[in-house]
Write a structure and sequence with these properties.
The chain starts with a helix and ends with a helix. By secondary structure, it is mainly alpha-helical. 71% of the residues lie in helices and 0% in strands.
Length: 141
């Protein structure tokens, strides 16, 4: 699904974003909550207001998980296995939400990276985030 060049590009982008994982992740979550208010349901026990410790912490976890998956995309299913189980069996997250967050993450990346988020980078990242969401959804079948 991804060429060698695309995999390298994705890995480089996420390595660059790791130091600002909290900012990227919390921004993507806020976009998702604003665009798809129903997704807030899963966070009712947390303070998800802008800048809150809960929002920043969870946003960072998300970005670090994506960055870890980008390190070796061919092993994405293995890398995400614990998260698959957690989200499917314990948290019981609607798998549609993974796609919604992926879309919001793309918008966040476009805003953060600006002109560096070229059409090639956008297309590669879209494919990668789609694969990421699909792998997280596998346990639901």
């Amino acid at each position: 699904m991804l060429s060698k060049k695309e995999k390298k590009l994705i890995k480089e982008i996420w390595e660059r974003l790791t130091p600002v994982a909290e900012d990227i992740g919390s921004d993507a979550l806020l976009r998702m909550f604003a665009s798809y208010p129903g997704t807030k349901t899963y966070f009712s026990h947390l303070d998800i207001s802008p800048g809150s410790a809960h929002l920043c912490s969870h946003g960072k976890k998300i970005v670090l998980a994506i960055a870890e998956g980008a390190q070796d995309i061919s092993q994405l299913t293995v890398t995400l296995a614990p998260l698959q189980t957690l989200h499917a069996y314990q948290l019981r997250i609607d798998p549609t939400n993974f796609k919604l967050l992926s879309h919001c993450m793309l918008v966040t990346l476009a805003c953060y990276l600006g002109s560096e988020f070229t059409p090639v980078a956008h297309a590669a990242m879209d494919k990668f985030l789609s694969a990421f969401a699909a792998v997280l959804s596998e346990k639901y079948r």
